[in-house]
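tool_call: predict_structure(chain=1)
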Amino acid sequence: MAQLWGGRFTKETDDLVYRFNQSLPFDRRFLEQDIRGSRAHAAMLAAAGIISAEEGEAIRKGLDGILSDVKSGALVPEGDWEDVHSFVEANLTERIGDAGKKLHTGRSRNDQVALDMRLYIRDELDGTSELLLELLKTILRVMEDNRDTFMPGFTHLQKAQPVTLAHHMGAYFEMFRRDTERLASIRGRMNVCPLGSGALAGTTYPLDRGMTAELLGFDRPCDNSMDGVSDRDYVLEFLSALSIVMVHLSRLSEEIIIWNANEYRFIELDDTYATGSSIMPQKKNPDIAELIRGKTGRVYGAMNALFTVMKGLPLAYNKDMQEDKELTFDAIDTVKGCVRLMTGMLSASSFNKERMEESARQGFSNATDAADYLVRKGVPFRDAHGIIGRLVLTCIERGVSLDDLPLPEYRKECAAFDEDIYEAISLKTCVERRLTKGAPGDMENELGACREWLRDFAGRVRP
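tool_result:
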C-alpha cells in the first residue's frame, strides 16, 4: 500500500482500515492546488538555501510534468495512494529521483492539506462569484425590459399593492448582490497562508513563509501555526454563504413555480427548461425550478454536517477534518449548477404582461391608493380605510373591480369622490406615485444603482 509513514510500523494496515482512511478518491479534486502549493514550497526552499537551486528547478519541472500529464489523461490520480499528496510525491520521485524526496522538507501533510483546501475554496469562491454576477446581469435585463410590466405585489400570498415586475425582480437583485458581497467578505478573511505551520508547531528550518504566501497570492502567512492547520472557519463560512444563496434560489424557484401554474400564468417557461408528463400530454412542468428548490436541503445538510464535525475537535489537526471535503465539494457543485440553471431559465423565459396586469386590477391591489385619494381630500385615514373596505365588499358582491365600479356607488359611501378617482387608482398612477427611495416609482434610480454596482464590483473586490 502506498503511504508516506511506514517507518514506525511493523504490520501492514488492515485493508478495510486503509480504504476507510484513504482520501485520494475525492481529494484528487485539488491536485492542481496541491501542485501549485508544492511549486511555491520548493521555490522557497531553494531561495532559502535548504535545497539547491538545481533541485528546486528539477522539482518544478517534475511537478509541471505531472500536472500536464494529468490534464491530458496520460496520468490518472487513482490507485492505492493514500491521498493526493502521496500520489504527487511518489510520481515526482519516480520522475526526478532523490530530489523529489526533498520536496516535503519543512512541511507536514497537515499544513499541506490546509493549504490545498484553502486554495481550492478560494478558487471555487471566485468561480461562484462569477456565476452570481452572470445571474445578476440576467436579472437586471429582466428588470430593464419590464419597467412598465404591472403586477400585483403580495403579502401572505394575497394580492396587496401594485408593483412592476422590474421592482419585484429588483428584490432578487438585492439578495444575490448580498450573496456576492458576502463571498467577497469571506475571501478577505480567509486569504492567509497556512503553509509553514508544519504539523502544528512550525519547523526548525528557516522557512520564508512570507515568500510562499506571496507566491500563492495570499495577503500574509497565518499568525498561529496551530490555528493554521486546524482552522476550517472559512469552509464553514463558505457553506453558510452557499446555503443563503440556496435560500434565495429556492425563493425565486418557488415564485416561478407559482407563476407557472394555470391559475396565475404569469410566466411561460421555455421548452428547454421544462419537462412533460409520461401520461398527461398537456403538462409542462417546472421541474428545474422544483429541483433547485429541493436541492437547497442538500446544501443545508453539508453545512450542518460540517458544523457538527468541527464542534468538538481539540487542537490541533484531527482526522475528522477529512470529512470537510466530500461535503463541501458536493455543496459547491450543487450551488454552481443551480445558479447556472437559474440564469439560463430566466434568460429563456417570457412573461405574460397582460395577464400580470389583469391580475393586479382584479385583486384590489389599488385599494390603499383609493384610501390615500380620500386622505388627500381631507378624510381621516382610518375613516378612509373603512370606506374603501365597504366598497371592496360591494365590488366582490357584484364581481367587478374598483376600476369598474360606477361613480354613484363611490359617492354613496363618501361625497368626496369625483371623476378623478379612476385616474388616481390606475395601476400606472399607483406605481408612479410611490416615489420614495426603493419604491416602484423610483425604478430608474434603482436600475442606475444596479448598473453602477455591477460595473464597480469586480475592480473593488479583486486584487
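agent: Residues 110-147+154-200+223-358+456-461 form a domain with the Fumarase C; Chain A, domain 2 fold (CATH 1.20.200.10). Proceeding to next step.
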